[in-house]
Amino acid sequence: MRITEQAKQDNRAAILKAAGELFAEKGFESTTTRDIALRAGLAVGTMFNYFPSKETMAMSMVNEALLAGVADYNALRSGAEELGEELFLFIACGLRRLQPMHAFIGPVLEKSLSPFQKKATCAEGNSAREAHLGAIGGIITGHGHLPAPDFLAVHLYWSLYLGILAFWSRDESPHQDATKAVIDYSLTLFVNMLDPTDPGAAEELP
Amino acid sequence: MSPAQPSPNPGNHKARCDAKPLTAEELELFARLSRQQIPTGALTRLWAVGSTQARISMTYLAAWLRSGFSDQEEKERLRGEAHLAAGLKLLATMGYLRGAVMKVGQILANLPEVVPEEIAETLGALHFEAQPMHYAMVREVFLDELGHAPEAIFAEFDKKAFAAASLGQVHRARLRSGEEVAVKVQYPHMARTIKADLANLRFLLKPLTRARDWQCLREGLRDVEEMLGREADYRQEAQFCRAAGQLFAAEADGVVIPKVYEQFSSRKILTMDYLPGLHLKDFLATDPPQAARDHYAELLATVSLRFYYRGHCLFADPHPGNFLFMPDGRLGVVDFGCTREFTEREWQLQSDLEEAFFAGDTPTIRRLIAETCYLDPGEDDLSDTLSCALAWQLEPMISEGLFDWSDGEFFRRGVAIYGELIRKRLTRGMPHYIWTNRFLFGFRAISYRLRGRNAFAERHRLEKGSAGRDLSA
């Protein structure tokens, strides 16, 4: 039987909703694909037509959250931000959208975004990485720091960003306050690395 | 100001003490530790420990450590010194420790400055600085604390901060109801970082555990930690601000305490009336006439004495940034984060000591000094110096007529007496002395820079004459 595009969208949304609820309730590792299918009201086989694994489901959620974060960033950006502030805004918008997944997303990010993997373990993880770095490249070049983000800068940025994600996923401070300080300090270091002569965003106040 | 200049203040009650100069070794150690490598360049802003003040405080750590060991323990001393040198390097990498270092420096030394000329300048910048926040960070704090971005709450919000504040920064804004406000925003994660930094500091101070006054230092640190913890909760400050407003309710006082807007405040955001006016440095740049200087010296005296006698508390962070010289001649007082209330026992001891001094009751003075500074029987030498310090503290209260705060000789005597206490390695004392010294030197330093005069003894009688009340009541 053929199903409509709308029905496909609905099924996909139902799977992600069920997965999100179960990951939050039971944790990522303890949730099985069978649990998810049951909660979504679909056959396990049908579910695999949409997502080959629960990692893919989780990373799809991450991708959607990060996309929403990009939309927030675009809406909030004034164009007058210094490089450090703009990078902060970009990362903070993404993390705010990821917030509902904070309790369970750590292991997923570790598996899907690990810099130790030679080949991407999950296409969604790869696309998250490419989309994020593409946007960052745009921000950096927009500030005229580099004609195009070179390999070293991208590698350093990605390492910092993964460090921030890892810190955030374990951060139990209220509102993940500690992460905000970590992002701020990390980005100041990164911006200083790009241009050591730049006085940076940190301006002395009276 | 040369030492040969005569004092303009009445000389009948001068506190004198035979202060000895520092030894050559101590001076050399100070100089060496003052040259400790501090990160420079762009990172200086990140690791905010590179100030002269912090370095001065650190040298006290060294001096105290040095004097804590006898000659027979030379080896131990050197080991401790090496540990301290390493510690200082580590301190330079602690993000937010500057304020804590300064406060600890005060515990150790009971005096944050070395020479009179430095008193005013150094205390002028004595406050805890966080890294400045850009607007994206400020917005995050708002979203977490109040659930909305500043632009959704205020009719106008200046994205650029106009001043640094305790643990954060201050932005100008306008409420939708029209009031001009100052919004204090705290840097994220400050409270916990302070806690962690103080834990690190305790570790660094380990070599001092063998020193005689360790227990006392530990008590002092606990008090500092408690105060910093309170300073990191702006709701406590809002409470003090409201209570202070009641202390200065009368128009005739000429003192303005800003109103707090509860609905736009939280643990990390404090919205208050914006007070127009100049900070001390800008006010002095207008070359004010002596009458204006005297007027503000009187208001400063009113503020300090009223907090003390009617509020039973200390406005313990009296740095110039917390006072506004308003265009209509009033004095604005802001930032109540560092307000230390006396316990009943502390208040009683303070009052008894003061009464004994005014009554010239030397045996009671000595008994109370021994009790509050934990002196052992036979420590008469320390008791003498502490009596000198007390006399210097209370001297303006018994000097009839105009007291001239620009009197360099008065300050030099104070510094000599406190220097003598350092030399004699007296760092014992009840924890509230950290704050009374900070309060005393802070207000006096501002009055000194202002070069104002006022009938302090008369103001003292007026403020003391009113029945006291607990600020928290």
Structural overview:
The complex is a heterodimer of chains A (206) and B (473). Chain A is built from nine helices and no strands. Chain A has 206 residues and is mainly α. Chain A has two domains: 1-51, Orthogonal Bundle (Arc Repressor Mutant, subunit A), CATH 1.10.10; 53-194. The longest helix of chain A is centred in the first third of the chain and has 23 residues, at 54-76. In chain B, helix 1 (24-34) crosses helix 2, helix 2 packs across helix 4 (98-109) and helix 5 packs across helix 17 (432-450). Chain B has helices spanning 24-34, 52-67, 74-91, 98-109, 116-124, 135-146, 150-153, 190-204, 214-231, 234-247, 280-285, 290-309, 344-359, 362-372, 380-394, 408-423, 432-450, 456-465; strands at 156-157, 163-165, 168-174, 180-186, 255-256, 269-273, 313-315, 323-325, 331-333, 339-341, 403-404, 453-454. In chain B, strands 1, 2, 3, 4 and 6 form a five-stranded antiparallel sheet that branches. Chain B has a three-stranded mixed sheet with strand order 5-9-8, with helices on one face. Chain B is 51% helix and 9% strand. Among the domains of chain B are: 24-118 and 191-203, no CATH class; 277-473, no CATH class. By secondary structure, chain B is of the alpha+beta class. Chain A binds chain B through residues 76, 81-82, 84-86, 88-89, 92, 96, 173-175, 177-178, 180-181, 184-185, 188-189, 192, 196, 198-206, and chain B through 41-43, 45-46, 95, 131-137, 139-141, 143-144, 161-164, 169, 187-189, 192-193, 279, 321.
Work out the largest interface and the residue count of each chain.
Answer: A-B, 32 and 30 residues
What proportion of the residues of chain B form beta strands (DSSP E)?
A: 5-15%
The chain-level mean pLDDT of chain A equals 86
- Low-pLDDT ranges of chain B: 1-5, 16-23, 25-60, 86-130, 467-473
Which structural class best describes the helix and strand composition of chain B? alpha+beta
Largest sheet of chain A: none
Structural class by sheet pairing and helices of chain A: mainly alpha
Taken in chain order, the helices and strands of chain A follow as HHHHHHHHH
- Assign an overall shape of chain A: elongated
Strand content of chain A: under 5%
Order of helices and strands of chain B: HHHHHHHEEEEHHHEEHHEEEEHHHEHHEH
Outline the low-pLDDT stretches of chain A: 199-206
Q: How big is the Rg of chain A? A: 19 Å
Instruction: Kindly give the count of domains of chain A.
Output: 2
Number of DSSP strands of chain B? 12
- Oligomer class: heterodimer
What is the count of DSSP helices of chain B, taking H or I runs of 4+ residues?
A: 18
As a whole number of angstroms, the C-alpha radius of gyration of chain B is 22 Å
- Report the major sheet of chain B: 5 strands, antiparallel
